[in-house]
User: Which sequence fits this backbone?
């Protein structure tokens, strides 16, 4: 693996999240366009989801070293759905247009919103034993009880301490 100067690595992380945000905007737009229930929740659009995942993979593969998200995914053995949930949480922090699209759908990016986009009917990405929850990589943004229905409809986000990595505020990987 090629070493990159810290500022270049931080910039690379920011570009990766921005590329994911652009692909997510398209996915959300297409999914909301196909919303098939009265609540306007995103409908699963397999072609749009496939295009989004190809764009994210291409962004990751185009760099000489893995991004922070890529390293997390590899080291913690994230599934595609877990990666997608993480990228959605990170992308709404750096892309106001994507945040607005999510707000138009549900008022905020909830876990239920993310799972409707990426894996309708599947809760495996947010299992308490899965890495996203176990390592508190994404957390509910609001407090409240922990029943499943409540957790699904609360806003989810990446904790501030973890956000710095892809906002270019932290140096490269430590060796």
Assistant:
């Amino acid at each position: 693996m090629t070493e990159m100067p810290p500022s270049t690595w931080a910039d690379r992380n920011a570009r990766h999240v921005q590329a994911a945000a652009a692909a997510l905007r398209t996915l959300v737009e297409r999914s909301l366009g196909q919303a098939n229930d009265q609540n306007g929740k995103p409908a699963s659009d397999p072609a749009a989801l496939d295009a989004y995942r190809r764009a994210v993979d291409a962004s990751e593969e185009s760099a000489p070293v893995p991004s922070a998200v890529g390293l997390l995914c590899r080291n913690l053995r994230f599934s595609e759905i877990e990666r997608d949930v993480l990228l959605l949480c990170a992308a709404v922090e750096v892309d106001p247009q994507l945040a607005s699209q999510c707000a138009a759908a549900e008022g905020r990016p909830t876990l239920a919103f993310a799972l409707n986009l990426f894996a309708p009917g599947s809760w495996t990405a947010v299992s308490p034993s899965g890495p996203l929850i176990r390592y508190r990589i994404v957390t509910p943004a609001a407090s409240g009880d922990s029943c499943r229905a409540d957790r699904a409809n609360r806003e989810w986000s990446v904790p501030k301490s973890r956000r710095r990595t892809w906002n270019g505020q932290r140096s490269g990987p430590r060796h």
The first strand starts at residue 139 and ends at 140. The mean pLDDT is 75. The two ends are 13 Å apart (CA to CA). Residues 19 and 53 are 11 Å apart (CA to CA).
